[in-house]
Amino acid sequence: LEKLSSAFVLYGRCSAMNSCTSAFVLSGRCSAMNSCTSAFVLSGRCSAMNSCTSAFVLSGRCSAMNSCTSAFVLSGRCSAMNSCTSAFVLSGRCSAMNSCTSAFVLSGRCSAMNSCTSAFVLSGRCSAMNSCTSAFVLSGRCSAMNSCTSAFVLSGRCSAMNSCTSAFVLSGRCSAMNSCTSAFVLSGRCSAMNSCTSAFVLSGRCSAMNSCTSAFVLSGRCSAMNSCTSAFVLSGRCSAMNSCTSAFVLSGRCSAMNSCTSAFVLSGRCSAMNSCTSAFVLSGRCSAMNSCTSAFVLSGRCSAMNSCTSAFVLSGRCSAMNSCTSAFVLSGRCSAMNSCTSAFVLSGRCSAMNSCTSAFVLSGRCSAMNSCTSAFVLSGPCSAM
Questions:
Q1: Could you name the domain of life of the organism this protein comes from (predicted)?
Q2: Where do the domains of the chain lie?
Q3: Per residue, what are the HEC states of the chain?
């Protein structure tokens, strides 16, 4: 028992020679040579040469040349040349030329020329010419000519002539003549005459007479009387009384009392009390108490107590006690005791005792005694002792 006291193994057994005292392995055995003392590996074995002491790998093996000491990769292998030491990639491999050290991409590969170091794109590839460094687009590709650097479009492509730099459209294309630069439309096209520059419409067309320039409607048509100039409605019609001038609603109707003037809601209706003026919610409804003004949630509802104002959670709900304000968890819920504020875990839950704050484990749980704080293990439990 004296020899086992400091042997934090899983099965309470050391190796054949009983000397793996400080070897935090999973299976309770050291490597074949019984000398992987500080080698925090998963399978209880070091690499073939038994010298991956500080190589925090996943499979308990270093790379082919056994020298990826500080290469925190996922698969326990470095790149082909074994030199991606500080390249925190996902697949444990660098690019073809093994030089994407600071290129935090998703697929663990840079572009064809391996030089998209600071181009934080989604697919881990730059454009064909590999020069869209500061063009934060969605698909990881710029336009055909690779020059839409500051054109934050959705599809990663500019218009046919590649000159809609400041035309924040949805489809990444301007009108047929490529001149609707300031016409924030949805489809990237202006009206038939291409002159509705300041007519923020959805379909890229104005009314039949092409004169609803400032009539922020959805379908490109004004109301029956063509006089809802400043009525930010969705269907091109005002309310029954034709007086919802500044009511930024979606369906072209104001609330029951026709007074939701500055209520930026989605469904064209305010809350039950008609007072969700600055509540940028998704469903067009505030919370039960109608006070989630600055709560940028996803579902358009606050928590049960309506106070998750700055809690940027995923599901639009806070924890049971409604206090996980700065707890950037994945599931939008804190732990049972609601105090895992700085515990960046994967499952959004802390350990049973809710105190694994700095224990960066994978499963979001500490050991039975909740004391494996700095033990970078894979499964999150410590040994039996």
A1: Eukaryota
A2: 1-94, 308-385
A3: CCCCCCCCCCCCCCCCCCCCCCCCCCCCCCCCCCCCCCCCCCCCCCCCCCCCCCCCCCCCCCCCCCCCCCCCCCCCCCCCCCCCCCCCCCCCCCCCCCCCCCCCCCCCCCCCCCCCCCCCCCCCCCCCCCCCCCCCCCCCCCCCCCCCCCCCCCCCCCCCCCCCCCCCCCCCCCCCCCCCCCCCCCCCCCCCCCCCCCCCCCCCCCCCCCCCCCCCCCCCCCCCCCCCCCCCCCCCCCCCCCCCCCCCCCCCCCCCCCCCCCCCCCCCCCCCCCCCCCCCCCCCCCCCCCCCCCCCCCCCCCCCCCCCCCCCCCCCCCCCCCCCCCCCCCCCCCCCCCCCCCCCCCCCCCCCCCCCCCCCCCCCCCCCCCCCCCCCCCCCCCCCC
